[in-house]
Specification:
The chain has 377 residues and is an alpha/beta fold. It contains 15 helices and 13 strands. The strands form three sheets. It has an eight-stranded mixed sheet, with helices on both faces. A three-stranded parallel sheet has the order 8-7-9. α5 links the parallel β4 and β5. α11 runs antiparallel to α12. The longest helix is centred in the first third of the chain and has 18 residues.
Length: 377
């Protein structure tokens, strides 16, 4: 269940990885990665009194509750002179619950739905029902199946490439003989295949992939159980690095290794720039995470939703200059936000600069000495 994106070549995408200077929400516009879009002139028929339905997939990934929901709520209000509202529901990683939540949004007659699907395939019938009811559906962060109107996310293959390249760089000259564990995400999430494909672009033929696992519903408990299997199969001392698709799983992988007696941890990747992950990077337990600017993704989603409801086709088209394919629809209008690898060397230039976390939030008493050691203050 792979999502195809109409994108630039791999070499051009690799240039984007190095564009660290252009990765705050404010500097993205300045660097030409995102065009500034002004509001179309309003007419009396374009009401600000709108309701945006927002469906997020789980609470295990901390960014959804801490960032995505409040940011989208704030942006919708700002774009509608305080008259627009967000009707919110979180599925708790249950696809059946999310489908019911989507149908409840249709019954409530929201004006547009933003959905981050737990399971891209099982949400399809709900998307079709929304279409029949005349309610636009925009896929958020993960591409849902069915007649969705648009998609806002990141170049997810590039996410995997960033993770894979980071591991290769961490392993250096030993990469070719190093045994890697691949802890992939949920098979129900179409992004998982893209993360894995991108990572394999960097790892295959350059390292030894000893064991590969899928992680149902992105659950850290599943990742931890799989890591214990990997330790038994390969041996704790035989594991040179772990490709972990996201931060929640990375924490579980690290816990499993520590419980097995590891005193020195191999490089472990992550994604989402969770606070706990950033702190693990500071302390040296996790090697890196992929920062996907939540502020810009949420802003783009809110702008797309409001423009769609208010019939602002020029603004909507300007926001969706990319194209992606799902298994059920080709050429979906999309907005793909750049990503960047975060290591202990650039925490201040990424998540701190963008206001995601303050140094005080990162450098609590437990991490104060580690922060001082890397000059984070």
């Amino acid at each position: 269940m792979t999502t195809r994106t109409t994108r630039t070549s791999a070499p051009a995408r690799r240039l984007a990885i190095a564009a660290v200077a252009c990765l705050s929400p404010l500097s993205l516009t300045a660097c030409g990665l995102v065009d500034s879009v002004g509001d179309d002139a309003k007419t009396p028929s374009r009401s600000d009194d709108i309701t945006v339905g927002l469906l997020l997939p789980d609470t295990e990934t901390s960014r959804f509750e801490k960032f995505d929901h409040p940011l989208i709520k704030k942006d919708v209000a700002a774009l509608t002179d305080g008259k627009g509202t967000v009707k919110y529901a979180n599925a708790g990683a249950d696809a059946g619950v999310q489908l019911k939540q989507l149908k409840d949004m249709i019954t409530a007659k929201v004006d547009v739905i933003l959905v981050d699907a737990v399971d891209a395939r099982s949400i399809k019938s709900g998307v079709e029902e929304a279409k029949e009811a005349g309610i636009p559906v925009i896929a958020y962060d993960r591409l849902a199946q069915g007649p969705i109107d648009a998609y806002v996310s990141h170049d997810n293959e590039l996410v995997g490439e960033v993770q894979g390249r980071s591991l290769r760089e961490a392993l250096g000259d030993k990469a070719a003989t190093s045994k890697i564990i691949m802890m992939n995400g949920s098979p129900e999430d179409p992004n998982t295949a893209l993360f894995e494909e991108g990572a394999l672009n960097e790892l295959k033929g350059n390292v030894v992939i000893a064991e590969t696992y899928s992680t149902s519903r992105w659950l850290p408990s599943v990742a931890k159980a799989n890591m214990k299997k990997a330790i038994r199969a390969v041996g704790l001392n035989g594991i040179a690095a772990v490709y972990s698709a996201n931060d929640g799983m990375a924490g579980a992988v690290i816990d499993a290794m520590k419980e097995a007696g590891a005193t020195s941890l191999p490089p472990v990747t992550g994604q989402d720039a969770d606070l706990a992950a950033v702190q693990r990077i500071v302390s040296g337990e996790q090697y890196m995470t992929v920062y996907k600017p939540f502020l810009l993704e949420a802003e783009q989603a809110a702008k797309m939703a409001v423009a769609k409801v208010q019939g602002r086709s020029l603004e909507f088209d300007a926001l969706t200059r990319d194209k992606v394919d799902s298994p059920t629809r080709k050429g979906i209008p999309a907005s793909l936000v750049p990503v960047v690898a975060v290591t202990k060397d650039n925490i201040e230039d990424t998540v701190v600069r963008d206001g995601v976390y303050s140094v005080k939030q990162i450098c609590t008493a437990e991490y104060k000495a580690d922060c001082a050691a890397i000059g984070l203050k």
